[in-house]
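Proteins fold. Shown next:

***
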Amino acid sequence: MLQAVILFCLGVMSVALILTFVRLIKGPDLPDRILAMDTLYINSIAVIMLFGLYLDSNLFFEAALLIAVMGFVSTVAIAKHLMRGNIIE
């Protein structure tokens, strides 16, 4: 039963990834694209975690943690660049 639920969730999250990627490409302005990028890495973390649960491997959880850290840092850097024009003061 758990395997079926994980596969269903993987399908739903894959659709969410595709729709978010469409928003990233088509976004009307820059803040929408930045928000789509932020949502894209969060959705990719969910997909990696679900895939790790499906395969019963701990390696995927470490990869998801690295993606989370890099996504947070990149979102903060882009937001700071939009607010002030430079990243490093």
Notes: The CA atoms of residues 14 and 47 lie 7 Å apart. The chain is about 85% helix and 0% strand.
